[in-house]
Write a structure and sequence with these properties.
Layout lengths: L9 H12 L3 H14 L4 E7 L5 E6 L6 H6 L27 H7 L2 E7 L6 E7 L2 E8 L4 E7 L6 H5 L4 H18 L4 E6 L2 E6 L4 H9 L3 H4 E7 L3 E8 L11 E5 L2 E3 L2 H10 L12 E7 L4 E2 L10 E2 L2 H18 L85 H11 L5 E4 L3 E6 L2 E6 H19 L4 E11 L2 H9 L1 H7 L2 E4 L4 E8 L7 H18 L4 H14 L8 H12 L14 E5 H7 L3
Parallel strand pairs: 1-7, 11-13
Antiparallel strand pairs: 1-2, 2-6, 3-4, 3-6, 4-5, 7-8, 9-10, 10-13, 11-12, 14-15, 16-17, 17-18, 18-22, 19-21, 20-21
Keywords: Coiled coil, DNA damage, DNA repair, Endonuclease, Hydrolase, Nuclease
InterPro entries: DNA_mismatch_repair_MutL, DNA_mismatch_S5_2-like, HATPase_C_sf, MutL/Mlh/PMS, MutL/Mlh/Pms-like, MutL_C, MutL_C_dimsub, MutL_C_regsub
Organism: Nibribacter ruber
Length: about 625
């Protein structure tokens, strides 16, 4: 048998290795920005064209490289970060594998200009598919300029799998924000197609958070700090009332490196237990400083996963730090043992003159003036001799006998929906209960409808149809409203501009990360349009991370969820009947798009058992 195992050609091995490090333009951005941070830069510029497919350029004023180092940095496993095996256990830099530049050069055309501090001339190096095309001296300021052009030019299959420009740009924004948050002492700027997207001056962490996410975050941040011999926690958490439906604005940094950890996220959520609205997630930016030898970051090429030597202790400290911050800022109940406990004595309750409860003999009512007892039709215990003694026990302790054929509360089947709809619309009066539920008599018993869930189902099918036909109706605002968004949300709404227009939104760009809203969908109550759009984008992003549905259905779900939460309150008889009719006209009337029940039927047998009949 002939030998079949052979070494791969170097260019093919490089492309395979690049597939682990360079997955999309955002991967290149991450590696280049982290290299600038390691080079001790004080100012970093990121320039993007065509969502990184045409150009990714990073300009920094860091240490720069000599002519030899510039050539060596494109070799695989060549790095300045570690020298011995022991260095792996005390890593403080962002990069250390020596793979990033070699991987990028394997799948792109790279030009690097660099000048080390204290030298007169810099070096210009051009590399294409890991082959050096030219190397020559160049005059330039101290620092490094790296330009990555035509990403995946030699791997067309990988280039074809890239998403649309707005999607890729959102991933680039995410990586840019993470590096910028981790290094507030460095000035960062982002330019997309020669337009400035973000300009972040050097400053404090709180200033960097406000610069990235918006001025409103200044009010909702609470500082968090805890120092122990094992671990130091610092950063900011968001107040519970500002929690959002999506997890997007949650950041953990370990030794200034962004990581993803469901375990630590659970620690934060546990500290917020009982304070958050249902299905809401808090904002937090937390930095953990820990001895490098107690963690392992050499788990995955992206270096976003990490292993702790004692993760239980880390969990407990993070949870305690967040809980303490909530107490210190009077967000959660706390005991202050240093406070004065001499409470003011209780004062007797004072009633108005018309409410005199004096029971002295002088004011006691006479027998003649006492009102006659009201006649009652209730049967006493003596007159119910044939009744079981258990009837007079409290309801919680009394067992209601059940018949063998008794059915539980259930949903209508699809076959029953048409028959029930006919019986509902046959003249039965609809009643509203606590402005949340509708009750209507049907042939088999009592139909109960969740008002908000029914609205969500009706609106979902309406919006889904409008998006398919591009036929949404709009109502013009008397006074157009300006909405300032975060860069990520602005990028997302411009990506979905056509779908928003189909729903009935009318808006246009109005400066940097700002839109002006001139119209909203016709059936949406006129209220805070900014809250509506921000909530809609938030719900869309939440669905994006938890559901595998197309863009149209995702937006229809998000819109139905947000608008139905506004359509609450008292309904007229006509509105209640119309709501029930519209629900049964839906293709799937029994459930909301997320699977929540919209209606329940109580059978006559069950109602009779409740009254022991």
């Amino acid at each position: 048998m002939a030998d079949i195992i052979r070494l791969l050609p170097e260019h093919l091995a490089n492309q395979i290795a690049a597939g682990e490090v360079v997955q999309r333009p955002a991967s290149v951005v991450k590696e280049l920005l982290e290299n600038s941070v390691d080079a001790q830069a004080t100012s970093v510029q990121l320039i993007i064209k065509d969502a990184g497919k045409q150009l990714i350029q990073v300009v920094d004023d860091g240490l720069g490289m000599t002519e030899t180092d510039a050539r060596m940095c494109f070799e695989r496993h060549a790095t300045s970060k570690i020298k011995t095996t022991e260095d792996l256990f005390r890593i403080r830099t962002m990069g250390f594998r020596g793979e990033a530049m070699a991987s990028i050069a394997a799948v792109a055309q790279v030009e690097m200009k660099t000048r080390a501090r204290g030298t007169e001339l810099g070096t210009c190096l051009s590399v294409e598919a890991n082959e050096v095309i030219k190397q020559e001296p160049v005059a330039m300021p101290e620092g490094t300029i790296i330009s990555v052009k035509n990403l995946f030019f030699n791997v067309p299959a990988r280039r074809n799998f890239l998403k649309s420009n707005p999607v890729e740009m959102r991933h680039i924004l995410d990586e840019f924000q993470r590096v910028a948050l981790a290094n507030p002492e460095i000035a960062f700027a982002l330019y997309q197609n020669e337009v400035e997207v973000m300009n972040l001056p050097a400053g404090k962490l709180s200033q960097r958070i406000v610069s990235i996410f918006g001025r409103e975050y200044k009010e909702q941040m609470a500082s968090c700090e805890e120092t122990t011999p094992f671990l130091t926690v610092r950063g900011y958490i968001g107040k519970p009332e500002y929690a959002k439906k999506s997890r997007g604005e949650q950041f953990f940094f370990v030794n200034n490196r962004y990581i993803k950890s469901q375990y630590l996220n659970h620690a934060v959520l546990t500290a917020f237990e009982g304070l958050l609205p249902k299905d809401s997630f808090p904002f937090y930016v937390l930095f953990l400083e820990i001895a490098p030898e107690t963690i392992d970051i050499n788990v995955h090429p992206t270096k976003t996963e990490i292993k702790f030597e004692d993760e239980k202790t880390v969990y407990a400290i993070v949870r305690a730090a967040v809980k303490q911050s909530l107490g210190l800022h009077n967000i959660a109940p706390s005991l202050d043992f240093g406070a004065d406990v001499n409470y003011i004595p209780l004062q007797p309750m004072k009633f108005p003159a018309s409410m005199d409860f004096d029971t002295s003999p002088a004011k006691a009512p006479s027998a003649s003036s006492a009102p006659a007892p009201r006649p009652t039709t209730y049967a006493s215990k003596a007159t119910l001799g044939e009744r079981d003694e258990s009837f007079f026990r409290p309801a919680a302790l009394r067992e209601i006998p059940r018949t063998e054929n008794q059915q539980e509360n259930r949903l209508f089947t699809e076959e029953e929906s048409t028959a029930v709809a006919v019986s509902v619309t046959g003249g039965s009066k609809t009643l509203q209960l606590h402005q949340k539920y509708l009750m209507v008599q049907v042939k088999s018993g009592l139909l109960m409808v969740d008002q908000q869930a029914a609205q969500e189902r009706i609106l979902f099918e309406k919006y889904n149809q409008a998006l398919g036909k591009r036929s949404g109706a709009s109502q013009q605002l008397l006074f157009p409203q300006t909405v300032h968004l975060s860069p990520a949300d602005f990028s997302l709404i411009m990506e979905l501009a056509e779908e928003f227009s189909a729903l009935g939104f009318v808006f246009s760009e109005f400066g940097q990360n700002t839109i002006v809203v001139n119209g909203i969908p016709a059936e949406v109550p006129l209220r805070d349009e900014r809250e509506l759009i921000e909530g809609l984008l938030e719900q869309y992003k939440n669905n994006l991370s938890s559901l595998k549905v197309d863009r149209q259905e995702n937006l229809a779900r998000a819109m139905a969820k947000r608008v139905s939460s506004r359509l609450t309150g008292r309904l007229s008889d006509q509105e209640m009947n119309a709501l029930v009719d519209q629900l049964f006209a839906c293709q799937v009337p029994n459930y909301t798009p997320s699977g929540q029940k919209t209606l329940v039927i109580l059978q006559m047998e069950h109602l009779q058992d409740l009254f022991l009949k």
